[in-house]
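Morning!

As promised:
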Amino acid sequence: MKIIELTKKAMLFSLLLIAFIACEDEKSEIINNGNPPETPPTAGNKISKYVLGFSALPIGGSNSVDYILSLPNIESLTKGEISIEGKGTPLKAWRFFHQAGNTVFSPGYSEDKKAIAFQLDNNGELEEVSSFTYQATLDNFSAVDDETLIGVELSGVAPTNEAGTMFTSVPDRTFYIVDAKTGKLQKTVEHPIDSNLGDGTLENPPYLPWVTGMVLRNGKLFVSYHKLFPDNKYNQAAPDKACIAVFDYPSFKLDKLIEDDRLSVLGINGHSTGIEKTETGDIYAYAASSKGAKADGTKPSGIIRIKNGSTDFDKDYFFDVENAPNGGKIFWMDYIGNGKALARIIQDDSLPEWAFFAEQGPFFKLAIIDFNNKTVTDVQGISAHANRYTSPLFVEDGKAYLSARVGNPIGIGATTVADGEAHIYIIDPATATATKGAKINGLYVKGIFKIDNQN
Amino acid sequence: MIFKKMCLNNKKINKGLVFITIVLSPLFLFSQTVLKGQILDQKSQPIASATIQVLEQQNNYVVSDFDGKFNFQNLELKKYIFQIKAIGYKSKNVVFQVTSSNNFLKIVLQQDITALDEVVINGKTKVDLIKEQAFEVEALEIKQLKNASVDINGILATIPGVNIRQNGGLGSDFNFSLNGFSGNQVKFFIDGIPQDNLGTALSFNNFPATLIDRVEVYKGVVPVFLGADALGGAINIISNQEQKNFLDVSYDIGSFNTHRATLNGHYYTDKGFAFQLSSFFNYSDNDYTINGNEFGKEGFAIRDELGNNTGLRRKTAKRFHDAYESQMIQARVGFINKKFADKILVGITAAANENEIQHSQDPEIPFGEMERNEEVFRASINFLKDSLLNGKLKVKAYGELASIKAINIDTSSRQYNWFGEFIIRNDKTRGERGGSKSILSLDDSRRLINTSSTYKLDKNNTSSINYTYNYLERSGNDPLNTFTTPFKTPHKINKHIIGASHTFNFFNQNLQLTAFGKSFFINTISVNEDVFNDDIDTRFSIVKNRYKDFGYGFASSYKITKGLQVKLSHENTIRVPEGYEFFGDGNNLIANPNLLPEESKNTNAGLLFNYSNRLIKVNLDTNFFRRDTDNLLFLSSRGNVAQYINLSKVLNTGFETEILIRIFNKLSVGGNITYQYIEDKNIDQRIPNIPYTFGNFSLAYTLKKLFQSSGILNINLNSFYVEEFPFQSFIDGSSEERLFIPRQFSHNLNVSYSLKDGRYNISFLISNLTNERLYDNFAIQKPGRAFFIKFRHNLF
């Protein structure tokens, strides 16, 4: 036993000795090798580039990885192939991409609660200039002008009492106001937008607002939204109502809530273009009335208007897209110019909830919507396709550039992503034709932006 | 189908009857009988590979098995003289009168001291014998490691083909991978009983090595006695099976306020009463220092109150919410060596853990209050009869009822940073991880039946059959979140797995061939409710599923010479999707009733080489493997919901090789390396985020008679190596920007001293000796250098 004690002591001693020697300075010093706090703009050659949010093909059992990629010229979009092999910056988690001024923001979704701001440096290289974290996922964004990106944090749930029989409150939503120049968050604003507790019961349940688009016009911020049941399943509480909140901006004082019964809920969950402004200052908004688009309703899919100068729906304007010649239900729509918009029209509306959000499948045809003449013209030169668009449409010289993936739905039968193909299509609204541009060696392109280094 | 055919065809039935009659007739026609027995050493340790020979009848002998047991058949009712021989022991002659029933012979052999050193070198260990099976199996004896501060995962990590990726310190989540398969594609067993769905309180990182005797790792091809739909292989942990009294306590203390204790014992009376106890306690603060939370960036970004990057960084932080505690107690009572059963034990297990969650899969933003607690209660019954039909038939049965409760607590409105500071969220509805606060408890009820029987036709033919029934019911409850509770309406899954195999021996037992088939019958049911739906017809949706599938394979080995053996094995195997993969969670994971099982064609070709003389023993084991997997599940997102779909087709080809050299029974040097090339065959790209080259190296030195005649000092140096591997892609992204999990090369040094034949043991471990920054997962740093001291006492 003596030996044991001795050995024990010897070992304890050696343990202490090693621990003492090994003990490092544990004080955590502060270093400054991160992003420089301020980079003073220096005059250099103006370099502009096309910046893409690019989703790679999923490999093995992993989700698709998002990359940010810069391309030198428009030909990179119209010809050849767009590949991230050996190029581009990989990012973590599923991401949004939005542009404000000369900054491309990439806010992470769910797992990654951080927005990264990218700009071109003096040499025209893409660099991360700043980042901000947020308390909860931001679900919708809009560059309301060249200086400001607004993000809004949304939720599909409301708290209940302990017994789970009653809802107890509906928390406010939070707007994030971001400076495009510096990439920094300037302030947050909490607001209920349009929330209602009802009496908290299942019979008269609460609803919460789910924003689908934001447009700023002459100091008024127009916000289109769904009213959702708070059960986190994104079910519509008021399916046959078009709702817009009008705020004074930048004070975020609620001016009024406007509603219209001629059509169903405005915009699509996850899309940022439920509401759009034309050169004339008129505002247009669309409703899908589609279960597969998670925007159910019984009214026809169509478009309504708020005229320039007005903060009310134009009672004289309603475009029934669903029943128009070449028409159908609108899954997505974005404005090109000259009173014309590009839309994805649903081919088979019998598919189940969320079906059209899949990355591959013959879900949509492409159409030019003429707001003024109320016409729908099929775009020639593109097959039935899929692609979700969370970023606004890229338009240059009156032509629209968008990514579309052609192929059958994956995971059904033996169909995989390898059986589909994605391309950039260049759409000329005047002729309603699509030209197949560069092949996308990936799943799809989430967003196309053009920025220069003159900040 | 086969049964149906047989019923319709009388001729076949007749043939079958004739066959059975012929096979069974020898058992009844002759008055010959069987002698069972066991060969033990002086310490009641079983001696494997001993020969029991009828004196002066050269060809009339049997060999004892792993447990020292033997069955001598076709003996006449007379007095025999048996000669018992085993390497390293003095041979012995025993006189025995064989009677018509209950012949049992217990033989204790004396160690041959003069030949002792030679013995350990020349003799075949249990592990050697297991490795010589036709299956591609890796076995490891724990004896040496029982004194070390190590858990089962720490041991499994040293096996070629195995890679374990850890998210932190003691009790942290881990991903076990075997030849590229991971998650529920690899199945875990303890003493042949499946452990799936038992939760994290009983996962292998909780079990200190002290509690077990041996691990076996079956690669790709799994014998039928392990009844499971294992796509990529199975791990079987063998607990102490000796029928010998002992009581063993250990206590272990170390860095980060780590404490581990075990109490483990067996008690048997002469009359056959048995009591077995096994227990552990683990605790650690896991508050080790880390050097960053984002990859490739040193330190931690300091952000202003809005969350903007200030450009300043702090160099280090300590993990501050990562403590782990777990405990288990298992008691079994019953009888052994009785006429009605060789073993019948009724047991109860209770286990629990409390786990602070420091961060999600991405460590950039930490949690400061999230917790997960689990509780497991299990009642079981074990039955073994290994001497039916004159010792030819062995029957085993196991039944279990278990309830597993897991509670995830996410109720904090605080958003923490890595320095332990926090702000209060604007939206008080939200938790740290979830979109709403939650105290989600998942209640699982598991029922399990496992029966197997082995019939030894003759020396060269053995048949076995195994049936496993696995029932799982899961229901969820969340008082804070009634409307978004996953598994709110219970989900049920029934799995029946029937396996049959036959083993043939040819050419004087030099060629061994096992052929097997497995049938899977699975049905699942779930009801989902939409509370806001007033339409009674569509308010409830029922998701049901039924599968039938068949897998098969073979394992073969051939001894070319005494020291050289080749092996070839193959299995067409499946894994049936788990409950939640089929029917979703009733929340935002949506059901996919069309989901198909994952399928894989697994092939191994191996070479086993042994050489030994008086001084040195060399083992070399090389295996080439191919895993051709189809219909792999993929979690695909659709807007705000997700769904499992069958998507990927993956091919993994590779090899693993291992060498172990023992010199003078004092020094041993070993190493292994695994290389695998895993490719997504849909898009022809290598799959990232899986280690593809990794290995272990070990150096052990034993010094006997140190300080005291019974004193033994063991010094072990174990090194772990994992080559750098990409996080997202091998080719995508610019080479400067591509993200990698860096190369790991770390060493553990263990010194242990034992006295009185292992009665008193003390051991000292330094893990991560050179204080490397180690990462298994992207940006999640593992502990730096740490110290542990362990005391172990074998009371009797």
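Chain B has two domains: 31-111, 127-794.

Hope this helps with the figure draft.
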